[in-house]
């Protein structure tokens, strides 16, 4: 769950995610990258979108704690 795409922190964190996935030889699906705008409510909505995917992701990475809280609430 990425932050606002116009923020340098979000751009750097997304770049690191892509680099790590690539180095590990893991696939990257554009549907797995959703924006949470660095807010709990954004993390909640983003997680709902991820839970609707088939197959569902087996792990989630949130770019900050606020979005992670929202994502956890969506899972509950």
Summary keywords:
76 residues, mainly alpha
What does this structure look like?
With 76 residues, the protein is mainly alpha-helical. The protein has helices spanning 8-23, 40-51, 65-75. The protein is globular, with a radius of gyration of 12 Å.
Question: Can you give me a brief rundown of this structure?
Answer:
With 76 residues, the chain is mainly alpha-helical.
How many strand elements?
0
Summed over residues and divided by their number, the pLDDT gives a mean of 96
Proportion of β residues?
Answer: under 5%
Which geometry do the CA atoms define? globular
Largest sheet: none
Radius of gyration: 12 Å
Low-pLDDT parts are: none
Helix content: 40-55%
N-to-C CA distance: 17 Å
Q: Count up the helices.
A: 3
Order of helices and strands: HHH
What is the structural class? mainly alpha
Annotate the secondary structure layout.
Blueprint: H1 8-23, H2 40-51, H3 65-75
Helix pairs in contact: 2-3
């Amino acid at each position: 769950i990425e932050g606002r795409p116009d923020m340098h922190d979000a751009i750097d964190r997304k770049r690191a995610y892509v680099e790590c996935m690539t180095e590990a030889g893991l696939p990257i699906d554009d549907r797995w990258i959703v924006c949470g705008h660095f807010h709990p409510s954004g993390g909640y909505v983003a997680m709902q979108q991820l839970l609707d995917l088939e197959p569902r992701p087996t792990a989630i990475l949130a770019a900050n704690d606020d979005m992670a809280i929202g994502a956890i609430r969506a899972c509950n």
